[in-house]
Design brief:
The protein has 746 residues and is α+β, with helices and mostly antiparallel strands. The strands form three sheets. Strands 6, 7, 8, 9 and 10 form a five-stranded antiparallel beta sheet that branches. A four-stranded antiparallel beta sheet has the order 2-3-1-4, sandwiched between helices. Mean pLDDT is 82; it is low at 340-359 and 729-746. It has helices spanning 2-14, 16-36, 51-62, 88-102, 141-156, 177-193, 196-224, 228-258, 263-290, 298-329, 365-375, 377-392, 413-425, 445-457, 490-510, 519-553, 557-582, 587-590, 602-630, 635-662, 670-702, 711-716, 725-732, 737-745, and strands spanning 72-78, 107-111, 125-132, 160-165, 400-401, 433-438, 462-465, 469-470, 476-483, 513-517, 598-599. It starts with a helix and ends with a helix. It contains 24 helices and eleven strands. Helices cover 62% and strands 7% of the residues.
C-alpha cells in the first residue's frame, strides 16, 4: 500500500491543476444540488419490530385520514391573576383564537378547550389541540406564522399564551461557538507548523471535504428522508477528521523535507507513510459509523452512513488534494524546525554540513515525556487507570431517554407551554400514553374495549383514562392514558410495562390485543432497543477493527491494548456526560438549562464514533513506533522515537478535534449539544490519558512481546506495509517519474 500511495502522492503533486479542478468541480456540483433540493423532512424515530411502531402502523391502517404522523400543536392559555379561563371575556378570546386556527389550509382539526374538557381543575389554564395534515418540517411558513399570530393576538387580549408541540420545530442552530471551534483549530495549526500557509492547508481541505459531504447530504435529504441533525453530525465529524488527516500528512511532508528530500519525493513519501495510516484510521471510523446499522433504527443508520461518507471524502482529499496544494505552496511550506529559512539547506538546495555530534539537538517535550513513562511504566499505568475509573463512576447511575419539550431552554415558547401544562394538569400530561386495542380477533369488541379501560384505571400511577374511541369498523379503539409522572421518568416507563403486561392477560381472556404507543412509549422502546443492541454492536465494531489493526501492526497485543484503552476512555466520557447532563455538574457553564436522562442514543453513538477516533490516534502514534522497531530499534527506544515524531502532531490533532466538537455545545438542539460535549471529553480522555500515557506504559512493560505474532498468522496476513519499508527499497533502486506514468496507465 505504501508504494501505491507514494506513487499517488507524487502524481497528485505533479498533476496538481487536474486534481484541484476535480475537487472544485465536485464541490460546485454538490453545492448546486443542495441549493436546488427541497428541504429535509423530520427526523423519524421509527423502530421496526417494536410494539410502539406496530401500534402506530395499525393506527394508520385502521384510522385512515387522521394524519397520524402530522404535526401537532398545543396552544396553552393562562388567565391573569385572580381570573379564570371560564370568565366570559377570557372564554371569548380563546374561542376567537380557535376559530382563527381552523382557517389554516394545512389544519386537520382544532379541539375547543371548553367542549373537549381541556380546562384545569382550578380554571386558570386551558389548551387547544391543533393537528395538521403534514409533519412539522413540511409545514408552510405561512402556517407557522398563522399559529404564532393567533397566539400573539390572544396575548394582546391579556392572556398568557404559549405554544408547544412539534409544529414550530425548526432546524437546530449551532451558534457562534462552532466558528470559535474552527478558529481555535486554526490557532493550533499555526502554532504547530509556525507557518500560515502550512496551517491553512488542513483547514482548506477539511472545509472543502465537509462542503462536499454536507452539500451532498442536503441534496439527498428529501429523497432519502434524512433528518436535519444528520448534516450537523456529519459536519461535526467531517471537520474533525478532515483537519486531523491533513495535519498528519503535512507534518510528515515537512519531516521528509527536513531530511533533505526533494519536494515531490517528500510529498510522495508523506502520502505513502502517513497516508497509509490515514487510510486505516479512516477505515476504523467508517466501520464504526456504518456499523450503527446493526441497531436497526433507520434514523441512526442514516446518520452513521452520512457521517461515514463524509469521513471517506476526508480521506480521499487528504491523499490527493493535500499533495496537490503542497505543489502549489512550494517553498512557502518549510521543513520541520525551519522558521525564516529552510534550516540545513542552501538556496541552491544543497545540504549544509551536518551538526557535529558534540552538538545534539535538544529533546522535545514528547521525547522527554516518553522517556519518563518508559522509566516509570507501572506507576503511570496505575495512575491513568485509576483516574479514568474515577471519572467513569457516574456512568453507573446512567438513565436513558429521548429529549422532549421539557429539555428545551426556558426561553422557548415550547418549554413554557410544557411548564404551564404541568402546572395545570400534572407532569404526566405532557407525555400521554396512547393505548390501541385491536379487537379484530375478538367476539365482543366493545366488551374488550371496556375491560382494557377498566384494567388500566386500576393500575398505579394513572391520573386519567379517556373512554375508548372506536374506529368506523368497530374493531379497533384508542384510549388515552395520563400518567402522574413526567414523560422521561422511570415511573412512566414502569407504567408502560404494566399496561403491556396487563394486555397479555386481556388477550388470553378476550382475544383482543393491547398495544401502547405515543411519543413517550416510542421513546421508551428506542431506549430499550439501543440498550439491547449495544453489546452486539460493540462486539461487531471492535471485532472488525481488531482484525484490521492486527493487519496494520502485525501484532496481537497492540490491538488488544488499543481496544481495552478505548473502553476505559468511553466509560470515563459517559461518566462525564452523566455528571453534567443528568446530575447537573457545571450545567450552567455548558448551557444545560434542564437536567434529566441522557439521550438514549448517546452510549451507542459514542461507542461508534469514539472508537473510530480513538483508533485514529492509535494508528498515527503506534505506526511511528512500529516503523522505528521494524527499522532495528529496541522496543523501549522505539516508543521514545514514536513520541519524538508523533506526540506533537497527535496533541495538536486532539486539541483541534476537541475544539471542533466543543463548538457544537452551543447548539440549540439538546441532542447535538450532548454529543458535542461527549465527543470532546472522550477525545481528551483518549488522546491525553490513554494514548499519551497508558499506551507507552503498556508497550514499555511488554517489550518485544508487544510485537509478537504467531508465524502461521504472519504468513497468512497480507503485507500492507504501513511503515513504508517498500519505499526504502524503491529509493535504493532509484524510483522516478516512470512509476507515475505506470500508475496513469493502470
Amino acid at each position: 500500500m505504501a508504494t501505491f500511495l507514494y506513487k499517488l502522492g507524487r502524481l497528485a503533486f505533479r498533476r496538481r491543476h487536474f486534481v484541484a479542478l476535480i475537487w472544485v468541480a465536485l464541490l460546485t456540483l454538490a453545492g448546486v444540488g443542495a441549493a436546488s433540493a427541497p428541504p429535509a423532512g423530520t427526523t423519524s424515530f421509527s423502530i421496526p419490530g417494536t410494539e410502539a411502531q406496530k401500534a402506530f402502523d395499525l393506527l394508520e391502517q385502521r384510522f385512515p385520514g387522521q394524519s397520524a404522523d402530522g404535526a401537532t400543536a398545543r396552544v396553552v392559555f393562562k388567565a391573569p391573576s385572580g381570573e379564570k379561563m371560564t370568565d366570559a371575556g377570557n372564554k371569548a378570546t380563546v374561542e376567537k383564537t380557535v376559530d382563527e386556527l381552523k382557517d389554516g389550509s394545512e389544519v386537520a382539526s382544532v379541539a375547543d378547550p371548553y367542549t373537549g374538557k381541556a380546562v384545569s381543575k382550578d380554571g386558570t389554564i386551558a389548551y387547544a389541540s391543533v393537528r395538521y395534515d403534514v409533519s412539522g418540517m413540511e409545514l408552510e411558513e405561512s402556517t407557522k406564522h398563522a399559529l404564532e399570530d393567533a397566539a400573539e393576538q390572544a396575548r394582546d387580549a391579556g392572556l398568557t399564551v404559549e405554544v408547544g408541540g412539534d409544529a414550530l420545530q425548526a432546524v437546530p442552530e449551532t451558534g457562534a461557538t462552532e466558528i470559535i471551534g474552527i478558529a481555535v483549530a486554526a490557532v493550533v495549526l499555526v502554532i504547530t507548523f509556525g507557518s500560515l500557509v502550512a496551517a491553512g492547508l488542513p483547514l482548506l481541505t477539511a472545509l472543502i471535504g465537509v462542503g462536499i459531504g454536507v452539500s451532498s447530504i442536503t441534496a439527498l435529504a428529501s429523497a432519502l428522508e434524512l433528518g436535519s441533525t444528520t448534516s450537523i453530525l456529519a459536519m461535526m465529524i467531517g471537520l474533525a477528521v478532515g483537519i486531523d488527516y491533513a495535519l498528519f500528512i503535512v507534518s510528515r511532508y515537512r519531516a521528509e523535507l527536513a531530511e533533505g528530500r526533494e519536494r515531490e519525493d517528500a510529498a510522495g513519501r508523506a502520502v505513502g507513510t502517513a497516508g497509509s495510516a490515514v487510510v486505516f484510521a479512516g477505515l476504523t471510523v467508517v466501520i464504526a459509523l456504518v456499523g450503527l446499522a446493526v441497531v436497526n433504527i433507520p434514523m441512526l443508520t442514516k446518520m452513521g452512513v452520512a457521517a461515514a461518507g463524509t469521513v471517506a471524502i476526508a480521506v480521499l482529499i487528504a491523499l490527493t488534494m493535500i499533495p496537490a496544494l503542497l505543489g502549489y505552496a512550494g517553498r512557502r511550506v518549510k521543513p520541520a524546525g525551519a522558521k525564516g529559512r529552510l534550516l540545513g539547506r542552501r538556496r541552491g538546495g544543497e545540504k549544509t554540513e551536518p551538526k557535529k555530534e558534540a552538538e545534539p539537538a535538544k529533546a522535545n517535550l514528547g521525547t522527554r515525556w516518553a522517556s519518563f513513562v518508559v522509566r516509570r511504566p507501572l506507576a503511570v499505568l496505575l495512575l491513568g487507570v485509576i483516574g479514568l475509573g474515577a471519572a467513569a463512576i457516574p456512568a453507573s447511575d446512567l438513565e436513558l431517554g429521548l429529549p422532549d419539550d421539557g429539555s428545551q431552554p426556558t426561553s422557548t415558547t415550547q418549554r413554557r407551554a410544557y411548564d404551564l401544562l404541568s402546572e395545570g394538569f400534572g407532569p404526566g400530561f405532557n407525555g400521554p400514553l396512547l393505548v390501541v386495542v385491536d379487537a379484530k380477533g375478538s367476539d365482543a369488541p366493545k366488551d374488550a374495549f371496556t375491560q382494557v379501560s377498566d384494567e388500566i384505571k386500576g393500575l398505579d400511577g394513572v391520573v386519567a383514562v379517556t373512554p375508548p374511541a372506536p374506529n368506523k369498523g368497530g374493531d379497533t379503539a384508542t384510549i388515552s392514558v395520563i400518567p402522574d409522572s413526567k414523560p422521561s421518568s422511570v415511573q412512566t416507563e414502569d407504567l408502560v410495562h404494566a399496561i403491556r403486561d396487563a394486555g397479555g392477560d386481556i388477550k388470553a381472556d378476550t382475544g383482543a390485543e393491547t398495544l401502547v404507543t405515543g411519543s413517550t412509549a416510542m421513546n421508551i422502546d428506542v431506549s430499550e432497543k439501543l440498550n439491547d443492541a449495544l453489546l452486539p454492536y460493540l462486539v461487531l465494531v471492535v471485532g472488525l477493527a481488531f482484525l484490521l489493526l492486527i493487519v496494520v501492526f502485525r501484532s496481537i497485543l497492540v490491538p488488544l491494548k488499543a481496544a481495552l484503552g478505548f473502553l476505559l476512555s468511553v466509560m470515563a466520557a459517559l461518566g462525564a456526560v452523566v455528571a453534567v447532563f443528568q446530575w447537573g455538574w457545571l450545567s450552567g457553564l455548558m448551557g444545560v438549562e434542564e437536567t434529566g436522562p441522557v439521550m438514549s442514543m448517546m452510549p451507542i453513538f459514542m461507542v461508534g464514533v469514539v472508537f473510530g477516533l480513538a483508533m485514529d490516534y492509535e494508528v498515527f502514534l503506534v505506526t511511528r513506533m512500529r516503523e522505528a522497531y521494524v527499522h532495528g530499534e529496541k522496543p523501549s527506544q522505539a516508543v521514545v522515537t514514536g513520541f519524538k515524531h508523533g506526540a506533537r502532531v497527535v496533541t495538536a490533532a486532539a486539541v483541534i478535534m476537541m475544539a471542533v466538537f466543543a463548538g457544537f455545545i452551543g447548539s440549540s438542539e439538546s441532542m447535538v449539544k450532548m454529543i458535542g460535549f461527549g465527543l470532546a471529553i472522550a477525545v481528551f480522555f483518549d488522546a491525553f490519558v490513554v494514548r499519551m500515557a497508558l499506551v507507552p506504559a503498556v508497550l514499555a512493560l511488554l517489550g518485544k512481546k508487544a510485537w509478537w505474532l504467531p508465524k502461521w498468522l504472519d504468513r497468512a496476513l497480507p503485507n500492507v506495509d504501513v511503515e513504508g519499508e517498500g519505499l526504502r527499497t524503491a529509493d535504493e533502486r532509484g524510483s522516478g517519474p516512470d512509476e507515475d506514468r505506470e500508475l496513469v496507465r493502470t
